[in-house]
Design goal:
- The protein is mainly α and 133 residues long.
- Among the domains are: 33 residues; 52 residues.
- The chain has 7 helices and no strands.
- α5 packs across α6.
- It starts with a helix and ends with a helix.
């Protein structure tokens, strides 16, 4: 994590100064930069790309269990917790659909306002005209 911070800010500050401030050796930083990516890191990157594809195809509604299921059906051998961890790291979240709830309380003892425009009656008259013709 420290090396990554140094790499992100290497254009702003001298590397040796940042290494001293973060208590790491410059040689360790340069060795980290030259080191190839691990097999697990490369696999995680490829898996994250596949997760993004499945997530977009599902209109961003799939969570980790559904994405894991889709990957298993495609033939990937991967654990559900790994998918959840990668989704968290990538900032992938499923959209949740709110359940419809009535906000009007119909069971009350208050007086009901008068139908000033007689909308309900006009609607019924129009329905009768359509049904009879």
């Amino acid at each position: 994590m420290r090396y990554r911070a140094i790499q992100e800010h290497d254009r702003r500050c001298p590397i040796r100064l940042m290494c001293r401030a973060l208590a790491v050796s410059p040689a360790g930083y340069y060795a980290w930069r030259a080191r190839p990516e691990s097999m697990r890191g490369a696999a995680n990157r490829a898996l994250a790309a596949k997760i993004w594809v499945i997530h977009r195809e599902a209109r961003e509604t799939y969570g980790s269990p559904s994405i894991w299921d889709a990957l298993v059906k495609q033939g990937h051998r991967v654990g559900e917790h790994r998918i959840a961890r990668l989704m968290r790291a990538e900032g992938i979240r499923a959209k949740t659909v709110k359940k419809w709830r009535a906000t009007t309380q119909s069971n009350h003892r208050m007086p009901v306002a008068a139908n000033a425009f007689d909308r309900h009656g006009k609607f019924q008259d129009r329905c009768r005209v359509r049904l009879s013709s």
